[in-house]
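Open question from group meeting: does this chain pack into something compact, or does most of it stay loose? Before anyone orders reagents, we agreed to write out a predicted structure and look at it together. Recording both the input and the output here so the notebook holds the full record.
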Amino acid sequence: MTATHIACIVLSSVGIMSIFLSMLFFMRERRIIKKCSAIAIGQVIDYRFRRGDNPFIAPIVEFDVDGKTYRAYRHYRGIGKRKIVATKETNVNDGFYISDSDWFFYEQKGRVFSFRAQAERDWPLGSTLKVLYNPNKPKQAFVEKIVLKSKVVGIVLLSVGAGLLVVAGVAFFLV
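Structure tokens returned:
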């Protein structure tokens, strides 16, 4: 067996491990979705801010389960900077919007937008929002809908693993 064949075997092993790891991410997402089956109505009490390169704002919601109070905030699949086009859902003067696929998009046209002002319009303090939570572990909660990044990581790992297997297979049989 040549060094190239050994390298192909190692490369295919890494590909198989990557595919196996991707399955763990897919299973994790499925498990969380299945476990977070209870619904509560919570009240917006504050906002979670992040400033810097990828700023965002999310409502913090307080909800009760079995007489105990918990907090959760709105999750996003990702954050991006994009030109905001006026539609029924957005206004050109808005500083951010949330897409149907749960991405938080913001725009800065040389001036600073007040995310808080828009958040107070979209999610006024004291307003109610739906919370999905795990009845066995109420700290595991999501405001409005369950949003996870596990699927994206799983797809990337699956693609990398499949690509490594193809490259290793082609190299193995060509040598």
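Observations to bring back to the group:
The first helix runs from residue 3 to 35.
The two ends are 11 Å apart (CA to CA).
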